[in-house]
Every structure is written in structure tokens, then in C-alpha cells.
Design goal:
Layout (H helix, E strand, L loop, with lengths): L1 E7 L4 H10 L5 E8 L6 E5 L2 E5 L2 E10 L4 H12 L7 E7 L17
Antiparallel strand pairs: 1-5, 1-6, 2-5, 3-4
Length: about 110
């Protein structure tokens, strides 16, 4: 099992969610996030004053999936979130040692 964390641009969230549903990846956790990297923030002008925002809004998606579906998941997220411009996001994959469903007491892949 793997824990997949994706950081994407907020305006691509609906596209990614539709792609995940179409590929039958269910059980996603979504949260708002702020971050910076190569994008190095952004400048905005408000009432004639220039402001630099170091942190850019992102959407964080988290999914637990069987190991054999990780490559497919990465492709689904990447193709739906890609704009070709800097700041498209990242996908991280972490080994998931164990999963346990509280309601039914299932463990392992059955808990996903």
C-alpha cells in the first residue's frame, strides 16, 4: 500500500477530481495549503502599492492506494493538473505500512 500526496493548483482541482472519479480512485482527502518553491511567490498591486506574497495557494490531495495502482494514479493526477507552466505541483509517494477501518475492523487492503 502507498500513501500518495499531491499538491496542485486550486483552479485545476475540479479537473483532477473528475479524472480521479473516472479512473475509480475513491477515498480522497482534500485540504487547502500554502507553499512556495521555484514559483517564488507572486506580486500583486493593491491601491497603487505592490505586495509580494511568498506563499502560493495550493490544494493538497491525499489518497491511500494499492501499490500496483500508484503509477496509474500519478498519471491521472499529472495529466489532469498539468498546465505546462511553473507551479503545476508535485506528487509524493510514501510507503503505507498499515491501514485499519474503524467501523468494520478491517485491516490492510480491505480497509481502503
Amino acid at each position: 500500500m502507498k500513501w500518495v500526496i499531491a499538491m496542485i493548483q486550486p483552479h485545476k482541482f475540479d479537473d483532477v477530481l473528475l479524472a480521479l472519479k473516472a479512473a475509480e480512485f475513491l477515498g480522497v482527502t482534500v485540504s487547502d495549503a500554502l507553499g512556495f518553491g521555484r514559483q517564488k511567490g507572486r506580486k500583486e498591486i493593491y491601491r497603487g502599492a505592490e505586495y509580494l506574497y511568498d506563499f502560493i495557494p495550493k490544494v493538497r490531495l491525499e489518497l491511500a492506494v494499492p501499490g500496483e495502482r500508484v503509477a496509474e494514479l500519478i498519471e491521472v493526477i499529472s495529466s489532469a493538473a498539468r498546465t505546462g507552466k511553473i507551479g503545476d505541483g508535485k506528487v509524493f509517494v510514501i510507503d503505507l505500512e498499515r491501514a485499519h477501518r474503524i467501523r468494520t475492523a478491517e485491516s490492510g487492503l480491505g480497509a481502503l
